[in-house]
Amino acid sequence: MKKSLVHLFVITLTMINVAFSDNWPHWRGPTYNGISEEKDLPVDWSEQKNIIWKQELPGASSATPVIWEDKIFLLAQELEQVSLLCINTEGKVLWTAKVDNANGKANGERTMASPSPSTDGKQVYTMTGNGEVVSFDYTGKEVWRFNAQDRYGRFRLGFGFHTTPVLHRSRLYLQLIHSGGAWVVSIDAATGKEVWKAERKSDGVAECEHAYTSPCIWQKGSTQQLITHGNDYAIGHRLSDGKELWRVAELNPKDRYNRTLRFVSSPVASSGLIVIPSAKGRGVVGLKPGANGMILPGHKSEQWRLARGTPDVVSPLIYGEEVYLNRENGSIACLNAKTGEEHYSERAHAQTYRASPVASGGKIYVTARDGMVSVIKAGSKFEVLSKNKLNDQLTASPAISNGRLYLRGFKFLYAIGHK
User: Fold this and answer.
1) pTM to 2 decimals?
2) Is residue 233 scored above 90 in pLDDT?
3) Closest Cα partner for 393 from 333, 352, 356, 362?
4) C-alpha distances in angstroms, 247 versus 236, 244, 296, 417?
5) What are the tens digits of pLDDT across the range 261-290?
6) What pLDDT, on a 0 to 100 scale, did the predictor assign at position 21?
7) Check whether domain 32-46+61-351 has CATH 2.130.10.10, yes or no
8) Among 386, 391, 398, 286, CA closest to 333
9) What is the 3-state secondary structure (H, E, C) of 350-389?
10) Which among 223, 125, 229 is positioned nearest to 170, based on CA atoms?
């Protein structure tokens, strides 16, 4: 009997891990950090090689696709509406649902469809630049809807609202940081009703009040925290009620304060490290989990702190024993995750970068706007394994599922796999 139970337990764990690996339910994947456990993704592709299919899209967006089993969900801004598309893994559009109104078809980065969707296998959760938060079931039927500006105040941002909510278990967490107010909100994913709302206080001023970052989840075992980032601080929150647990300060030092230091690059967390960027070439902090209170330079909760070198737009990646900082000009800095010491700073392809890197099978995939994806060998030595060009513009972060890499361009969705 004991052997049978053990055998059943092992099978169950295996099934959970397979499903966990195959799905990509959030813009940074199943563990909120851009990492896939899959081992055999393609390294080389082009318009003529290893493209399983490509599907023309009705409008542009920088939103990352999310995948659950055989269904892919992504946003597009069409002529009159922001749409949620459901595409199967064979490349067929199954349905399209209206999320919000639009004034013109998008053909670049600045769209109302920039926040990425997320899914839990039952519903798909979307948000637009107008603050329209909508949940759909897997047939395209609307489950619930509300407008975040109606609930929490008009957005006052210089470059539009681009924050992606984070879905964790049965809650959807919204980070609303702008000149009109700063709130962190927990929403019941089943109903769309507010669970809690916490004010996010700051002494930041001017453009620093505008955050274009997305919140993330730190988790280790049964312990989790929500991390928000913007208006001069990164803050850790208790999931049950939004209470502030810690705050990393001096990301915009008071003695040389920059009134235009708006944060765009989002934090990333592994079980043993939280990497907190800033903006415009300034500092990066490696934070030990379990911090409390105000974290100033030299605090015991810091693993390390760099005075400069942050990505301005692209979010960091923690993979293995290294941290990767993919800057917007294509420069890639590789740091020792324990010490912050720089192993190298190299450029695989000089271009503009908006998408955040992903990792799988000992390889780092970095995506340039001009359609070039460079594959870098993970580790402390710089080695470019391949450079792969598509005839599209890429600003959405890649998604990985079931042996395929999905790239969302302005014109097409590409499914890349071994052929």
Assistant:
1) 0.94
2) yes
3) 352
4) 6, 8, 9, 42
5) 999 999 999 999 999 999 999 999 999 999
6) 53
7) yes
8) 286
9) CCCCCCCCEEECCEEEEECCCCEEEEEECCCCCCEEEEEE
10) 125
